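Standup notes
- DV: blocked on the single-chain target, sequence here:
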Amino acid sequence: MPATVETHDHFEKRLKMLGKKHSSMTHGYSTKVGKDGLIVAKPRRRRVRGVSAVRLLLLVAVGFFGFKAFTLAAVGPITYNERVAKLESGTIIEKVGAKALKIDPVTEAVVGSISPVVR
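- DV (later): unblocked, structure below
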């Protein structure tokens, strides 16, 4: 049986692999005991960044509808619709804002629950 010779390249490759494993374990790791009794440490999986983007988008949407509902409850539907109508006769950006700020079912539902508190 021929003996394998450990070269400097093999050593560098193993060292690089251990460095990657060590840096990934700085975010947390879990240990398990194998069938042979050896304790093996494995890095924990990191969270996917897309989840935080979805949470941010959801937070912005909730904030937007909350702002609309609070404004509608504070000034009343007649004044609110008059102000939105003024926006509809403005520039293109104001027209887009008017479409977004129109009263919708979600806003009405939120206003129904917060209007006793606001008024």
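- Follow-up: The radius of gyration is 30 Å.
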